[in-house]
Design goal:
alpha+beta, Phosphorylase Kinase, domain 1, 2 domains, four-stranded antiparallel beta sheet, two-stranded antiparallel sheet, 6 strands, 40% helix, 18% strand, globular, Fructo-/Ketosamine-3-kinase, Protein-ribulosamine 3-kinase
Length: 185
């Protein structure tokens, strides 16, 4: 949704100016968390690579409906063309290169969401621990919706957690190697 807002305090010698913003709206506690998470993560990304995302304007709760929450950011006209892959990946690499963790750990200070799915952002010491924790969290959410895992899925999940993830990620942080925690989207 695109809305026109007016500056709250225009200068005394000018008329209020319209500002085009993109507005996202969601209801309930889930919606509140989603809007707050989107705002906080967008602010974090914008501070590091401002050309990568629209400028976040704010988030909050409607005065007229305390169960309805919003997130606002600058509006950018978009087309249906695919973005330039080289430019996109360069911005993504810059984000990972320039961002630093405030406490030297993997995680984020608040819950964020992938659509309506909460992402577990608890602080962890290693990339393997963070990735494993999130993978387990998504498996648990899947079981809440779909019911208990089939024997085949349970076996594959166990193999992923006990073999695949450790074999892929642990070598990156052993033998003196270290992955510097950075902002991931």
């Amino acid at each position: 949704m695109t809305v026109d807002l007016f500056e709250a305090q225009p200068s005394l010698d000018s008329e209020p100016q319209a500002i085009d913003v993109d507005a996202n709206v969601a209801a309930g506690d889930l919606g509140r968390g989603m809007m707050f998470g989107e705002y906080e993560s967008m602010v974090a990304i914008y501070k590091i690579v401002p050309t990568f995302v629209p400028k976040p304007t704010g988030w909050g709760t409607f005065e007229s409906n305390k169960d309805l929450h919003f997130f606002l950011c600058d509006f950018h006209e978009m087309d249906l063309d695919l973005p330039n892959v080289n430019k996109f990946t360069a911005c993504l690499a810059e984000l990972h290169r320039k961002s630093t963790s405030p406490n030297g750990k993997w995680g984020f200070h608040i819950m964020t969401y992938n659509g309506t799915l909460p992402q577990l952002n608890d602080w962890t010491d290693t990339w393997e621990e963070y990735f494993t924790s999130n993978f387990k969290h998504f498996l648990e959410m899947e079981q809440e919706v779909q019911g208990p895992a089939t024997e085949e899925l349970a076996e594959l999940s166990r193999a992923m957690l006990e073999k695949v993830i450790p074999r892929l990620l642990r070598p990156m942080e052993t033998g003196g190697r270290h992955i510097e925690p950075s902002l991931i989207q």
